[in-house]
Amino acid sequence: MTSLTLHARVSSKNTIRVWLCVESDNDENSAPRPKWKINGKAVAPVALRPLAPSHKFGSTLLTGVFEISVEDPKANYDRVSVTANGGAAELSIRRFPEAIATDTWFRILLCSCFHQAENRQAQVARTYSNIPASERQDLSLFMGDQVYLDLPTLNNYPDDEAQLSERFQHYYRTNWTSNLGLDALLKTSPAVFCPDDHEYWNNFPHRSPIIQNSWKQDSRARWKNAADQLYDAFQCATPAVRGDNIEVDVDPVSIIVLDQRSQRQEDRSATLAPDGLPQLNDWVDRLIAEKKVGAVVTGQSLLDKPVGEYKGSVADWMLPNYGDYEGIVKALQRLSDAGRPVLLLTGDVHWGRVTRVKEAGRTKFIEIICSPSSLVTTIGSDQLKNIGAGFRRFFKGEKSRWPRHSKPPDAEPFFAQQVFGKRYRTETIYKHTGDQFAMLALRKAANTLEAKVTYYEIHKHPGKPRDVALGLLR
Fold this sequence. Notes:
Layout: E1 2-9, E2 15-24, E3 35-38, E4 41-43, E5 46-53, E6 61-69, E7 77-84, E8 87-94, E9 106-111, H1 123-129, E10 139-142, H2 161-177, H3 183-186, E11 191-193, H4 217-234, E12 246-250, E13 253-257, H5 276-290, E14 293-297, H6 309-314, H7 325-337, E15 342-346, E16 352-359, E17 362-369, H8 381-396, H9 417-420, E18 425-432, E19 436-445, E20 448-457, E21 466-473
Parallel strand pairs: 9-10, 10-11, 13-14, 14-15, 15-17
Antiparallel strand pairs: 1-2, 2-6, 3-4, 3-7, 5-6, 7-8, 9-19, 12-13, 16-17, 16-18, 19-20, 20-21
Helix pairs in contact: 2-4, 5-7
C-alpha cells in the first residue's frame, strides 16, 4: 500500500509549491511516478527537489518539492491532486496574496514547540478545527522545535547514524503525516520553518548533560548528520538550502526567517551561517529602500539577556551569548532608525508574551512569543509541579488549568542592553500561559498597517481566544 501526503509551501508569484511525501510498505515497489492535476487539469510540475529517500540508509519514505504554474491569476483557491503507485492525495490551497488589503486581514499562524507524545486526543488538530475557515491563516510560521528528536530523555539512543536516521524519520513521519501531529495545520496554508535546538538535541551544538550521545565529538557528528538529513527532507525551504535565511514578501510586509541553529558554532562565534549576517543586512537595505514593514522570525528571543557559563552549559545558551548577536541587533536598529516598524516573532520558552520595545516613549519593536503548542515532558520537574498543584487544590481550593506550565515573566527591562545600553526600554503588555498557538493579523490602515494577535488555548476545554491589539505599526 502506498500513502501520499501533500502540504503547501510558500512560492513565487503565479506558482504553487507543494511538498510531497510518498511512503510504501513494500520495499520492492517500483519507483513512483507522480501524476499531477491542478483544478482537474493534468499538469507537469517542476521538480525543485525530486522525490528521494528521506535518509541514505534504505528508507522507503520519499519526499520532494514541486512547483506548478497557475493559469488563472484571479482565482482565490487552487485544488492540487496527485496519484502515485495506487496512492492519492489532494490539497485545496488558498492563493497567496501579493499585497495586504484594507478590507480583510492577512493572517499568519505562529506555532512552536510541539511534543507529539503530549498531544493527547489530538488536541492541536481539534483546537485548530474549531477556528472558522474565514479566520484561518494565509501563511504558517513554525518557529522551532517542530520535533523533539532527543526525547524521551532517559531513552538509550544508539550511537549509529543509520539507526538514528530511522528513529528520527519515525518522529517526523508522525508529526507531518498524522492527525496526532501537525498535519492539520500544515495542509491549510503555505508554511515556512525555523529550526531550533530540538531539531537536533537540547542546546545543540553544545554538549548536554542529559543527552549521552552529545558527550563526544564523533557522536555529536553522527547525530547531526542524521538530523540534517531529516530536516532537509521535511522542513527545508527548497530551493533554499539549510542555513539560508528565508524571505517572504506580501506588500508592504517582508518576513525574514533566520536559521540560527543548523549552522550554530560550538565556540559561540556565530548563530548564523557565514552568509547569514550579510543576507540580513541586504534585507534591511532593501526594506529601507522600499519602505516596508519588517518581521523577523527567530528560534530564540532577541530580548533575552546572556547567561553565565554554568547555566549555558547545563541548560541553554541564549542568543546574546554568541558573537554575531551584536551584528544582528544593530542591523535591526538600522531598520528602526529609518522609521520602519519591526516585529520580532519567536517561540522556545514554553509561554506566550507580547512586549513593546520603546525609545523615548515611541514603539520601535514589538516582540510576540508563542510557545508551546504541546508542552514537552520534563522528568522530575513535572512531577513536583503536579504534586504542588495537588496540595494547593486540597488545602486552598486553587485549581490550575496548567500545573506543569511556567508563568511568563516580564521582559528584560532593556533590549540588548550589552549593545545599546539603556536606549530601548521594554513594556510587557500581555502574557499567556499554557499550550497555545497564535494568529497574527495585519491589514492596511492610514498609510500603514493595523495589527493584532490572537492567542488560542489548546486544551480539552479551551477558553475563549484572547485578542491583543497592537495598533498601527508606525
